[in-house]
Amino acid sequence: MAGDERLGRQEGSTGSGPDRCRHGEEASLALGEDPDSAPGRTRLELELESGYRANVVRELRPHAPLRPATALSRPSASNLPRRPLADTTVVRPAQLPAAVADFTGREDLVRKLNERLAVSADRSAAIAIAGVGGIGKTALAVHLAHTARHRFPDGQLYVDLGGSGPSPADPETVLGAFLRSLGTSDAAIPDGIEERAALYRACLEDRRILVLLDNACDAAQVRPLLPGDGAPDCVTLITSRTHMSDLGHAHPVDLDAMSPPEAFDLFAQIVGQERATVERAEVMDVVASCSYLPLAIRIAASRLASRRTWTVSVLARKLADERRRLDELRAGDLAVKATFELGYGQLDPAQARAFRLLGLAGGPDISLPAAGAVLGLDVAETGRLLTSLVDISLLESAVPGRYRFHDLVRLYARACAEREWRAAAEREEALSRLLDFYLATAARVYALERPGDRMVEHLEPTGHPGLLFETSKAALDWLFAEADCLLACVPKCTGESTRRRTGDLLLGALDLAESGARPRQYETVAQTVCDAAHTAGDSRTEARARSALGHLYSFTGRYGPAERELRRALELDGDDPVVASRASNQLGIVANGLGRHEEAERYLGQALEAFRADANEAGEASALANLSRLHVSRGRIRTGVELAEQGLAIYRRLGAPLRLANGMYTVGIALTRAHRLEEASGHLTEALDLFREARQPLWEGMAHFRLAEMHLAAQRPSEAVAHAEQSLALGGLGGEWRRFSFLTVLAKALMAAGQRTRAQDCWRQAQVLRERLGSPEPEEVRQLLSTSAPDLSAATDPYPGHRHAYGVGPPMTESDPWT
C-alpha cells in the first residue's frame, strides 16, 4: 500500500460532487416550493416528496439567500437546539482525498475493518489507527474510507490536523470549517469550542456521515470533533502517531510494517511488474533495507522508476550502507528522515535524550533494566519515559518489559546521537553503563551456575550491581533471553575504556557457547575483541578473548582452530589465573580428542594445579572429569571411574545443577566402559533430565548418545535406537564429527534391531562425513556397507566402528561429552 505522510494534503474536494448542478433545477421543480423553505425540512421528507436524494438540496438555487438567524446574537451552549438551526442548510460534503491508486496489501486488516463498519450495531463510533511516521496510516484510512463511503450516504468530512508538525490544528477552527461544510452559515456559527462542538453534534444527528481526522496530535485534539451519542450511524476514522488509549470507546489499530510479499507488490506497482520480477532477489534486498516501511518503499521505488538506466541491484547497493541509508531514502520533497524529524522535534529534552541513547544499543530489542542502564535512570523513571515514546510510536513494545525500534527509526535515533554537540562523551558513557549492566548480570548467572568457581572474582569491576536471581533457572532464562542483545553490545565497546570488560563479558557468558545456542554470533564478537585487543597491544584482553574463542571452537568440533587459539592465549598471558587454568584444561581436552594422550595428561595436570592454586573447586572438578575420560580412553577403567566419582563428589558438595549433570554424565561414561550398566543408566538418565531443564540442547543430545551406547552394551537395541535417533535430532549443534558418531551408533543399533536397510543408509551417510572430514574409514564401516555384511547381534561391542571417533572427534569442555 502507499504510505505517504502528505497523502491527505495532496488532493481533496470540500464541496459537492460534480453531478449536483445538473440536477439542481430539476430538484427545485420536483419539490414545487420555495427552495428557501427546503432547509427547514427533514432529509427524509425532502427525499420522499422529491424522489431525489437530499444531497442535491444545497444547489437547488445557488443564488437564493440563506434564511437569517433567528436571534440577533450568535447562539450559546445554553440555547443551542438539538436539531440544526433553521439557517443550517442540509448538505452532503464529499471531502475525502483522492483514492490511493496503487494501494496494496493490508487485505486482512481492510476486510476486518470493513466488516466492523458494515453493521451499525457492532461498530465503534471511532477507529483510531496509530503507528510510526511513514507506516501508511493515512493511505489505509483513505482507502478504507473510499471502500466504505457507500455506507455513509450523507457525506464524508476530512481534515489534516497537523499533529506531527509544530502547529497542530485548533479544534475550534476545525469545527468552524466542518459546520460550514455541513451547511451552517457563518452568522450561525458560535464562538467557543464547546458551543461549536454542541452545534456540530446537533448537525450530525440522524445522519450517516464518515469523518476522517488525519494526523491527529492527541485525544484532547480529537474529542471535540467526535459525533455525539445522537449520531450512532456516524463513524470517525482517526490516524495519529499517538496511541489514543484515553479516547474511550475507539477501536484501536496498531499499524505495523508490511509483510515481505506486500512490500514486493508495492515496489512492483511503482517500478513495473516485469522490472521487479527480473530482479526479485534484489527487490527483496531493497524492501528489507527499507524495513518494509511503506513510505521508504515508495521513495526507493520512485527513485528507481525515474532512473531507467539503473538496475534494482544498483539501488540495493546504495541502501546496503546503514550510515547512508536514510540519506538515500529521499525523492523530491519526500524523505523518510524528514518524517522522523517531525516526531523528534516534538519531544521534550528527557524524551529526546532517551530516544537518542536507546538507538545506540544493539540487538533486536532492549529490556527495561538494560534501558535504565543506558539512560542512567532507575527502572520506574525509565519505564515512564519509554512508555511515553511508545505512546507516540517512536518505540514499540511487543511484550511487557521489552522495547524495540523500527529499524529505520533506530538508524535515525543513532544519527541524532551522533550529531549532538556532546555526542561522543554521551555515547561512550551510555554504552559503558550498558556494558557494566550486562557484565555484572552475566557474572551473577555464571556464579549461580558454577558455585565454587572463582573466575568471577578475576573479572573487571563494574559500576552496576547486576540483576539478582532467585533460582538457577531464572538466571539461565535471563541469559538466553538477552543473548542477542548482550552479544550485540560487545563490538560497540572495544575502545580503550571498555575493552577489558568486553573480554570478561565473553567469559561470563560462556553458557551461550557451551549450549550451542549462539555459536556464530559468539565467534564473531569474540574475534572482534581479539582483533581490537591485538591492535591496541592489550595482551590480557586478547588472551582472555582467545581463550573464550578456543572454548567455543572445541564445542563445535573445530579442534585445529581451538588448539591454535588456546596455545596463543597461554603465550600471551599464562600468568593470568583465568587463562592458565581454563586454557590448559581445554588444551587437555583437545589433545585427548586428537589422540595425543601424553600431551593431554600434561595439560590436564597443569590445569588441575592451576585450579587448586586458585582455590577454584568447580574448576578442579572439571579437570578431574577430563582426566577420568583420558584414563577411560586409554583403557584405565578403574582409575577412570575413581576420578569421575571424585569430580562428582565436588559437584554434589557445591550444589550446582548443571555442573552436577556434567559430573553424572562423566561417571555414566566411565561406568558404561566398566560394564556397570544399570548404574550407568541411572547417572546418564539423571544427567539428561538436568540438561533438558537447563536448556542445554547440545549436552542433551550427547546424553542421548551415551544412553544409546549403554543400551547397546546391555543388549537393548530398541532402546538404543530411540536414544540414538534423539541424539541425531539434536546433533546439528555439535558439528559434523558429532553427527558422524551419532550416525554410527544409530546404524549399529538399527543393525542389532534387525533393521538392516535403515542401518546401511546411516552407514553411507557416516561414510560421506568421514570422507569429508579426511579421516580413514574404519574396517567395520566397509564391512557393513557391503551387500554380504552379516547382521550384528545385540551382543556386538558397541564401540567398534565409532571407537576411533573418540580419537579424532571434537573435544568438549567442563565435563567433555565427546571423549
From TrEMBL:
SMART domains: TPR. This is Tetratricopeptide repeat protein. Pfam families: NB-ARC, TPR_12, TPR_8. TPR repeats lie at residues 543-576. Residues 1-41, 792-819 are annotated as: Disordered. The keyword Cytoplasm does not apply. Keywords: TPR repeat. Residues 107-275 form the NB-ARC domain.
